[in-house]
Amino acid sequence: MKKMVTKVADLIHGGDYNPDQWLLYPEILERDAELMREAGCNAMSIGIFAWATLEPEEGKYNFEWLDQVIDRLYAHGVYTILATPSAARPAWMAEKYPEVLRVNSDNRRILFSARHNHCYSSPIYREKVRQMNTALATRYSHHPAVILWHVSNEYGGACYCDLCKENFRNWLKKKYGTLENLNHAWWSYFWSKNFTSWDQINPPMDNGEHSLHGMNLDWKRFTTDMTVDFMEAEIKPLKEANPSLPVTANLMGFYPGLNYFKFKNVCDVISWDNYPAWHEGDDQELACSIAMAHDLMRSIKPSQPFMLMESVTTAVNWKEYAKMKRPGMHELSSLQAVARGSDSIQYFQWRKGRGGSEKFHGAVVGHLGSNQTREFRDVAALGKRMKGLSRLVGSPFEAKAAVIWDTENRWALDDLQGLIQKDKGYMKEALHHYGPLFREGVNVDVIDEESDFTPYQLIAAPMLYMYRAGVAEKLRAFVENGGTLVTTYWSGVVNDTDLCFLGGFPGDGMNQVMGVDVEEIDTLYPQDANSATILPCETTRGMKASYAIEDYTEVAHLNGATALATYDDDFIAGLPAFTVQSFGKGKVYYIAACFEQSFYDDLYRNIIEDLSLKTLDVTLPKGVFLSNRTLEDGSLCHIFQNFNTNEVSVSLPREMECLECGEKITSLTIPAYGTAFLI
Amino acid sequence: MKKMVTKVADLIHGGDYNPDQWLLYPEILERDAELMREAGCNAMSIGIFAWATLEPEEGKYNFEWLDQVIDRLYAHGVYTILATPSAARPAWMAEKYPEVLRVNSDNRRILFSARHNHCYSSPIYREKVRQMNTALATRYSHHPAVILWHVSNEYGGACYCDLCKENFRNWLKKKYGTLENLNHAWWSYFWSKNFTSWDQINPPMDNGEHSLHGMNLDWKRFTTDMTVDFMEAEIKPLKEANPSLPVTANLMGFYPGLNYFKFKNVCDVISWDNYPAWHEGDDQELACSIAMAHDLMRSIKPSQPFMLMESVTTAVNWKEYAKMKRPGMHELSSLQAVARGSDSIQYFQWRKGRGGSEKFHGAVVGHLGSNQTREFRDVAALGKRMKGLSRLVGSPFEAKAAVIWDTENRWALDDLQGLIQKDKGYMKEALHHYGPLFREGVNVDVIDEESDFTPYQLIAAPMLYMYRAGVAEKLRAFVENGGTLVTTYWSGVVNDTDLCFLGGFPGDGMNQVMGVDVEEIDTLYPQDANSATILPCETTRGMKASYAIEDYTEVAHLNGATALATYDDDFIAGLPAFTVQSFGKGKVYYIAACFEQSFYDDLYRNIIEDLSLKTLDVTLPKGVFLSNRTLEDGSLCHIFQNFNTNEVSVSLPREMECLECGEKITSLTIPAYGTAFLI
Amino acid sequence: MKKMVTKVADLIHGGDYNPDQWLLYPEILERDAELMREAGCNAMSIGIFAWATLEPEEGKYNFEWLDQVIDRLYAHGVYTILATPSAARPAWMAEKYPEVLRVNSDNRRILFSARHNHCYSSPIYREKVRQMNTALATRYSHHPAVILWHVSNEYGGACYCDLCKENFRNWLKKKYGTLENLNHAWWSYFWSKNFTSWDQINPPMDNGEHSLHGMNLDWKRFTTDMTVDFMEAEIKPLKEANPSLPVTANLMGFYPGLNYFKFKNVCDVISWDNYPAWHEGDDQELACSIAMAHDLMRSIKPSQPFMLMESVTTAVNWKEYAKMKRPGMHELSSLQAVARGSDSIQYFQWRKGRGGSEKFHGAVVGHLGSNQTREFRDVAALGKRMKGLSRLVGSPFEAKAAVIWDTENRWALDDLQGLIQKDKGYMKEALHHYGPLFREGVNVDVIDEESDFTPYQLIAAPMLYMYRAGVAEKLRAFVENGGTLVTTYWSGVVNDTDLCFLGGFPGDGMNQVMGVDVEEIDTLYPQDANSATILPCETTRGMKASYAIEDYTEVAHLNGATALATYDDDFIAGLPAFTVQSFGKGKVYYIAACFEQSFYDDLYRNIIEDLSLKTLDVTLPKGVFLSNRTLEDGSLCHIFQNFNTNEVSVSLPREMECLECGEKITSLTIPAYGTAFLI
User: Fold this and answer.
1) What ipTM does this complex have?
2) Is C421 exposed, middle or buried (0-12, 13-18, 19+ CB in 10 A)?
């Protein structure tokens, strides 16, 4: 059992708290502490945008208000997750040191504004952050109320200032050594771009170079590295003051700007901010996507729980429609995080501000200041229930199956010229694979190319366009050693720097592992259609006679593999659309086209059976999802969640016990939007 | 009777005339004067973009051509509405003094181009305008032909140059006194924006701050104030030369850039430019929107007629489709302005230019130069008819009902983060209320929060999100003194600077006046639906059993009010959706959701009956609209307009007389697109 | 017979070849030459983006690799089309001389990036190009393998730097002489834009003037002239070294940025790049559009064949969907170029690059490097077939009918404020006329206003909005001398500088030629409809009783012409919608509205019959298109292409012979996507 925060016995329940907005309203600050207790909250994230209040003039710190807030909350049983305020700098700093402000890709420095937009290179900004973090750490890192550092807020974006450009060039020098290497890696020969001096290189600016994909990729990698480097600089004074106080940064799920797997070592705990649009479309599909996001975040540090750092009590105010959560959805969606391995449920934010652009974002306490609103009562009810779930604290979510969803691969796909230009379909194909595993109640990790493949029996590698160095070997070894690999069209096309493999696809030798040689890929117009007929055999048992195909069809030739389905139409009729090959002790499925979802459902049902991946022998009704956390004694807590708007029954394979009430049952009835924790 | 222009006995008929484009074509200038007489025109707006011709070199004025034009027209019975030419400066001025050109929100100064884009702060521009206006006023303000000043053209936009920034900061200093006040008013604490020096403040630039809504609002207010200030500077030399020559500026209806109600005192006469897209959709709905625009413009100075300064003879050339007016529509739409209180019908423009981007905009005289075109004949026929309507000159349009449509409230709603992001629905909800009054033939004013509420028996205040200081008191007093108030969801949420009221909505004490406490508002997706069931009683007599709801549903609790309808579906089923409360001598209706139009139609039918708001006891057929102007003897002229494409009959409650022909009738038959003036 | 390239006996088959990308892969360079022979290729375009390799440092040339490539290919029977590399400059040049980089219309100079973006004015760039081209010409212009110069690549775009601005002003001075002339020509009086100094004039920059259409037009004309001037400078050293080596530049069909007819004299051969989106919509309609593009390109130099310089083997990678060509489409679409007068079929590119944004663009050789792919085999099969078509080399495509499609008219229409704003419909109306001629197998030229009209019996002049100086006289003379002119609504509205004609439309006296006076034009909303009834007579024999109308209806009055159809609906019912007038020895059809396609089909069927325009008395099945090239003996080669996905039979009017196999046939059966060459 790995508890994130050793001081807290229960799951953490709380939210962002911005008392610095209310210093002129002391009665509200007093009332907050009482309401927190009433809402069953035990921790608040404080000071996230408080720099202007903490340091109103350069070098003049004001911590008294913060002392009082932390102490007052602690007196009411509420811990503090203390933020470093670097996400928004004070106006005086931007005025005196404009270099702290970011330069956008249009080469213009921003004015003092918004947030999350400082330069990561600026020596002055780093120094000011160091001073602030040192002061905070000195004063609070041994305070009994303080349980965790919340470093900055939602790191993101990039700066294109001269300092950052220079850092980029130095990063490239370190990576490539010589311009010859760089020119080959980026294939700069194309359109006469051969660089003959490092100074000729710029980031991909609005009015600059974009056609060298290796360069674009390196810029994104550099940006991730700079962000991690900045975070390391932020953490240094914190750890110096108290090495044992853990650190987190709130990430943003599938946010495309950063490769979060590079934050693995810099964060003691992974936390993230989750804002789904419930009730807009199919909530069961959305639940699947959100579970995948939880799994992605958790899999950065797969051995331990994560935290849900931000979520909303009801409606967010920045979507197209500010739709509220229906009754029951708050509990259901919040507990989904716990089901997927979170040890916390936290909100943005505790109390709605009076002004500014977030004042209509859902919060525990509204402008009315009342404890009688639906929002408050929902939160308080959940807080009460969470107290009965303390056995889950520190319990890992363990998986034998993994889906590879690799951020660098995504970058390369997004940037690629070809296929369906607007959306290459990476997320769609990934959900084709993740979905069946999720819906069958199989625990899944969502890993990247650099993750350890050895813990898994099954790996799905959809659209793995880019094989970074070593990935092909790892995949080969995984299969040789008995693993089952499911992979698809448009895999193994390029290497780390987006250079195409020569001599056959999937490249880097993987065509041998798959027993398939790919000749070309065709992109279908939305009005096009094809399908494939399944060749009946043991492997395709229970599958339909034929499945529809859209978006992509590869022209592939068998070279050792066995065809399991062949195309029905067009000039590729009869060619393999789906194959299998045994390789070493393992097996590889190759899916050469983009099938309808039921194809993947039926395929994975067989694979799950073959590999005995289920943790419990149950048939899950539609919309009931099963997650499993491993308790301290090694047994599993099976968490059933009903995303239907009606009550549903599940027959259990054995007598089970309710984690919360201890009742023994053999059949489970879950109300609409209900969650059951069974052991 | 308040005549706008004392010299002219008839309604004004004419248009923009740009002889400066035709100085090389003397025969055309000669022909114009003859054609104007033939078209029944009695006034032309001259010199609107003539600066380059009036002052071809700095300080060298050339008025001879203008003398001739004014004299020639006067000799043909055509008065002059003389423009100040500030809307477009000459090239030599932009070249010599670049500061006269505007800086856009991207911080880049424009090049010499287009029009309506000078800096309102520039001392040089103000000086050049002063010199020009002084010269014009000296020469023409006592000319017998000149009846009105047309100051500049369609004021609009904003400048972000350093001079304007400095003026903005000074405006803020004057408004707030201290940065403490400003920081609280703007809630700058949010995201650490506390300003510690005035110089840190910028307008909302493209690459600057946008999240402080109080700041955004103040920038728009400042821009309006600067524009008014510029106009005052323009007028000063005009009034010095002849204080009795009235002044107007042509406004633009619902244009969002300026708060036109601030022009109340600076304009002697309100005039505006109106370009509806007839025949595109439902012309009867469009007629309602356009009537509302006329009413808004008129209500800036509600005691007197306004002018229709620009309209088109047939098609405008800048819409997506340059659709022409069908036969009859020109007369119908032109007389709609008169029906709503205009004393003029004027066009842009008299003659189509040979070149430039407006050369295909409809005009009285086309490139053919003929008086035989449909356009010309339509105009001439209307000119002839207008001569029979002289009794209307100076007659006011008086209303006992008003709809509040407040520009600052609109700004705040548009800027708000939340609800339906793209369009909060203010105009839609306003038309829900305006429509029934318009269609029942009830005269309506369209006023703003600063207007006098005391003349009215009925005020509709849809979506009055922002209660500026004093508005709640005025509304309370209005009801206490016997007024009927109809108001809706999303009212009284914020104060002047967009700070939320604390302690209950609608705020500033208005929840007591309404007898309703609002807990939260839900935004519906387009695919969502709800409805409310009407509780039958005297107040809801004749209403349907149930009405559909879209977009918004508030969760509101009765606190003194009586429910008149309750929600049918969702978790709010049974809660009040529509209430009434007596307060003092008056009554307040609260509509908690966005209903279908027929709900408002049925509700207002009852209210109109209760308050006896009808001027005439007629049942108006669909598409026949009734407006009423008060003649000099206090009697009403009832103006019926038929927006149907077929003839329609109306039975009259008494024998009435045709204003134009004197015929007595008891039943009225109006041809397609016809207009009848009955007394 | 005019052969473009005297050294090559066969049609040219080849493509862009970029060995400079592969210098580190000598085995690939070796293999390329073998594969070219195998693919039936006889010419490659080399060095298009090779500047960085040819001149890796300033003044240090490296030609050895190019020597080897040219020699190796020549040894394998492959000629070289040698490029000048000006389309992309090396990084060192951009670094040392930033002035070579273009300034965009936002007034910002680009960074070193992309391609096709140098300044055409820059003296340094011109000097560097001169040096490079001199070096290339000195070394290669007498090399036996080199058959043609490929100058730069896809010239396009515009530069807005200070040098270009100054050149623009000088160009204007030369054109207009005085500012008075310019001000009148541009109608600068509009919005007070009168220029009083040349320095006040700028190009249409983002933040500058756009409302003067004459200025916008002149800027586009200037840009064309500058591009031609730059190309002339490029060619000078080439011709000095070897005056007899011909020159081409690869154009881009309907690309709107340049008036390609101005390249008539500077190019010895016209060549162009053609990338249709086959299989997306109706391929037969697309074939018609593409034929029109071929005809436009050919008609720049109508007396001789042109070259298809670039096309793709299967899918391009920069469209929304990277759809591959179905089997047979490669041959069909490639031979369409030959059918319309091309003496070459060339591809971009020979081999897919390993990196960069074009690496997934279709190519003869893919990353696999194999000769067994479908792409390679399709190319090789076509190469083989082309060897049997050598009799076509040099054979012209001669037409007695022409459609005027004028680039300057297009510019003016696109820029116009009015009509259907987004798309005035020029291409749509042009295809209305081109389509019937194409589908009936009548050879057509697609000419511009400056072309010679005398070779034709029939000219279609759709939407000829702008009559440049002399055009009306040419059209009048054409008709007087016996020509048949078909023209339409929205013709003859403005002169060269977009000034409206005064005194009647179509202007410049053409209303007399047509016998019609146009009063106004109405733009229909998409939901509007009208139709016209045909008046039966000899001229309208076989036409339907009535045809639907959309988009536009003109109100026109007969003034000598005879009505052939009258409007059915709206206020224009009964007015003429379609007229004819005999004038001199010829005849003019005037079409006053935008009819459905079948109207044009039926009308042209009669005209084709009247003028005996058919080359062969056949009835062409739907989707079978006939083109005709004139062989050396004056006889025609009739080329039938079947754009159906099924086999089709055509009965022939006489015994004919297969050009390829010599077989005599009386009935022709063409397979799906097949092409037959009959003599």
Assistant:
1) 0.97
2) middle
pLDDT digits (tens, 9 = 90+) for B517-527: 999 999 999 99
d(CA B235, CA C453): 61
CB contact under 8 A, A88 and B193: yes
Name the average pLDDT for chain B: 97
Active site (annotated) includes residue C554: no
The yes-or-no verdict on residue C44 having pLDDT over 90 is yes
C358/A194 touch (CB, cutoff 8 Å), yes or no = no
Q: pTM of this prediction? A: 0.97
Neighboring chain C residues of A525 at a CB cutoff of 8 Å: 279-280, 321, 323
* A49-72 residue pLDDT tens: 999 999 999 999 999 999 999 999
CB contacts < 8 A (A, B): 166
Taking a C-beta distance cutoff of 8 angstroms, is the pair A554, A490 a contact? yes
Nearest to C104 among A190, A194, A207 (CB): A207
Q: Which of C99, C310, C331, C440 is catalytic?
A: C310
Contact at 8 Å (CB) between B677 and B658? yes
Chain A residues with beta carbon closer than 8 angstroms to that of B187: 21, 353-356, 359
Three-state DSSP state, C528 = coil
CA distance C159 to chain B (A): 17
Task: Give me the catalytic one of A99, A234, A310, A375.
Answer: A310
pLDDT at A1 over 70: no
**Angstrom distance (rounded) from CA C670 to CA C664:** 15
Of C267, C165, C185, the residue nearest C226 (C-alpha): C165
Residue A310 is a catalytic residue:
yes
Question: Left if phi > 0, otherwise alpha if psi is -120 to 50, otherwise beta: which for B398?
Answer: beta
Q: Please, is A26 exposed, middle or buried when counting C-beta atoms within 10 Å of its C-beta (0-12, 13-18, 19+)?
A: exposed
Facing residue for A200 by CB, picked from C49, C112, C324: C112
Half-sphere exposure of A16 (CA within 13 A, CB side): 33
The contacts of residue B653 (CB under 8 Å, 6+ apart) are B616, B617, B618
End-to-end CA distance of chain A: 17
- Copy the structure tokens of residue A549: 């195909």
Predicted local distance difference test score (pLDDT) of residue B1: 61
**Cα-flanking dihedrals φ and ψ of residue C91, to 5°?**
-60, -40
Q: Locate B558 and state its tokens.
A: 């009765």
SS3 (DSSP) at B409: helix
Residue A656 phi/psi, 5-degree rounding, is -130, 170
Asked if A321's CB is within 8 angstroms of B525's CB, the reply is yes
CA dist., res. A348 & res. A356, Å (int): 15
Residues B359 and B353: beta-carbon distance below 8 Å: yes
- Residues near C558 by beta carbon (within 8 Å), at least 6 away in sequence: C515, C516, C576, C579
Q: Say how far apart CA C615 and CA A633 lie, in whole Å.
A: 92
Q: Which two tokens stand for residue A444?
A: 């899944």
Q: How buried is B507 (Cβ within 10 angstroms: 0-12 exposed, 13-18 middle, 19+ buried)?
A: buried
Contact (Cβ atoms closer than 8 angstroms) between residue A345 and residue A330: no
* B367-422 residue pLDDT tens: 999 999 999 999 999 999 999 999 999 999 999 999 999 999 999 999 999 999 99
**pLDDT mean over C348-357:** 97
Q: List the B624-630 sheet strands across, edge first.
A: B624-630, B636-642, B675-678
Those residues whose C-beta lies under 8 Å from the C-beta of residue A180, and which sit 6 or more positions away, are none
β A247-251/A146-150 pair status: parallel
Nearest to A24 among B184, B422, B528 (CB): B184
Largest alpha-carbon pair distance within chain A?
A: 77
- Give the count of Cβ contacts less than 8 A between chain A and C: 168
Residue A116 Rama label (left phi>0; alpha psi -120 to 50; beta)? left
Is-contact C191 B88, C-beta < 8 A? yes
Query: Chain centroid to CA A126: how far?
Result: 27
